[in-house]
C-alpha cells in the first residue's frame, strides 16, 4: 500500500507502520489475567513481547493461547496489535472481528481495528470504530488519536485538532497526537502551531524520522527551504527507507534548481512506494510530468 507523504499516521505511524511500534493498544498483563494459569502465562508473555516490538514472537504466544481458549477476546485484540505493527492490516481486522464477536465491550478491539481501517484507508469505518470505543471508554487517548487521523483524512480538521487536544491533555508525551495535530493545523493554515507541534514531537522522540519529515513540510510552507532540506536529510539519515522523505527532498531540490538531484531522489521515492500524487507540497511541473510518465508506463 502506498504510504501517505509527510503526515503519516501513523500513524504513523501509528500507525501502524513499524516506526510507530508500540503506539497501537496492547492489553496490560493485569488485563490478560485468566483462570487457567497457562492462558494467563501466555497472555502476559504475548502482551510483553508486543510492547518490546517482538511481534512475530508475540503472535506465536497468542496463537498458542488461542489453541487453549479460542474465544479469548483480549488475546485476539492483542494479536491484532501485532498484525497492525507488521503491516498485516487485513489479519488485524479479522482478529478484531472475532474479538468483538466474543466480547462486544472489548474496547481495544475497536481501537486496533480502527488503526487497521485507517491504514487501509477506510476512514469512515475507522471513525465508526473509534466512536464505539469512546462510547465504552470516553477517556481513551488512543481512540481519540485514531479518530483524529480519520477526521483529518475526511477533511474534518477542526474535529481532528479537538481529538488531539483531548489525547494530549491526558497524555502529554503522546507523539502521535502531536503529529496528527500538526497535520490538521497545517491544513487549517496555522503553520506556526503546526511547527510547534512538530518541535514537541521531536523533543519527545528525537529518533523518529517521521517527526523530521513532517517538520520539513512546515518549513517548506513557511518558505524556509534550507531548514526543510535539513529535516529531509535528517529523516533519511534516521530511516533510509522512508520513501516520503526522498520525495520531499526531490521536490525541494527541484524547487531550488537541482534537477539531477531531484530526479535521483524521485527514483528512490518510487522504489519505496510513493509518488508525487501523494504529496501536499506543490511539485514543479517538469518533475510532476516525469513522475506521471513513469507511473503510466508501468
Explain what the structure shows.
It is built from 15 helices and no strands. Residues 1-24, 28-33 and 278-298 have low confidence and may be disordered. The relative contact order is 0.10. The chain is mainly alpha-helical and 298 residues long.
How do the strands and helices of this protein lay out in sequence?
Blueprint lengths: L36 H15 L3 H14 L4 H14 L2 H14 L4 H13 L3 H14 L4 H13 L3 H14 L4 H13 L3 H14 L4 H13 L3 H14 L4 H13 L3 H13 L13 H12 L2
Give me the number of helical elements.
Answer: 15
Low-confidence stretches: 1-24, 28-33, 278-298
The biggest sheet amounts to: none
The number of distinct β-strands equals: 0
Termini, distance in Å? 16 Å
Provide the helix percentage.
55-70%
Report the portion of residues in β strands.
under 5%
Rg, rounded, reads 20 Å
Q: Could you state the order of secondary-structure elements as H and E?
A: HHHHHHHHHHHHHHH
Structural class: mainly alpha
What's the overall geometry?
globular
Overall mean confidence score, pLDDT: 83
Amino acid at each position: 500500500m502506498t504510504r501517505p507523504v509527510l503526515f503519516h499516521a501513523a500513524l504513523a505511524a501509528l500507525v501502524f507502520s513499524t516506526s510507530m511500534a508500540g503506539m497501537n493498544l496492547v492489553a496490560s498483563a493485569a488485563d490478560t489475567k485468566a483462570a487457567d494459569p497457562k492462558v494467563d502465562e501466555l497472555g502476559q508473555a504475548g502482551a510483553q513481547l508486543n510492547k518490546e516490538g517482538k511481534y512475530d514472537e508475540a503472535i506465536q504466544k497468542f496463537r498458542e493461547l488461542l489453541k487453549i481458549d479460542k474465544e479469548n477476546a483480549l488475546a485476539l485484540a492483542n494479536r491484532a496489535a501485532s498484525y497492525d505493527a507488521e503491516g498485516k492490516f487485513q489479519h488485524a481486522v479479522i482478529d478484531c472481528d472475532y474479538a468483538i464477536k466474543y466480547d462486544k465491550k472489548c474496547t481495544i478491539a475497536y481501537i486496533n481495528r480502527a488503526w487497521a481501517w485507517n491504514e487501509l484507508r477506510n476512514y469512515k469505518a475507522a471513525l465508526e470504530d473509534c466512536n464505539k470505543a469512546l462510547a465504552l471508554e470516553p477517556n481513551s487517548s488512543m481512540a481519540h488519536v485514531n479518530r483524529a487521523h480519520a477526521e483529518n483524512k475526511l477533511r474534518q480538521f477542526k474535529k481532528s485538532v479537538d481529538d488531539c487536544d483531548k489525547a494530549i491533555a491526558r497524555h502529554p508525551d503522546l507523539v502521535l497526537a502531536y503529529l496528527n495535530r500538526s497535520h490538521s493545523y497545517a491544513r487549517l493554515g496555522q503553520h506556526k502551531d503546526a511547527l510547534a507541534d512538530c518541535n514537541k514531537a521531536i523533543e519527545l522522540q528525537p529518533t523518529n524520522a517521521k517527526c523530521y519529515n513532517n517538520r520539513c513540510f512546515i518549513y517548506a510552507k513557511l518558505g524556509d527551504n534550507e531548514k526543510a532540506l535539513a529535516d529531509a536529510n535528517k529523516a533519511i539519515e534516521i530511516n533510509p527507507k522512508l520513501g516520503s522523505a526522498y520525495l520531499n527532498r526531490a521536490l525541494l531540490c527541484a524547487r531550488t534548481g537541482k534537477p539531477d538531484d531531484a530526479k535521483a531522489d524521485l527514483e528512490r521515492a518510487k522504489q519505496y512506494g510513493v509518488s508525487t500524487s501523494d504529496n501536499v507540497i506543490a511539485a514543479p511541473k517538469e518533475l510532476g510530468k516525469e513522475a506521471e510518465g513513469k507511473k503510466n508506463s508501468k
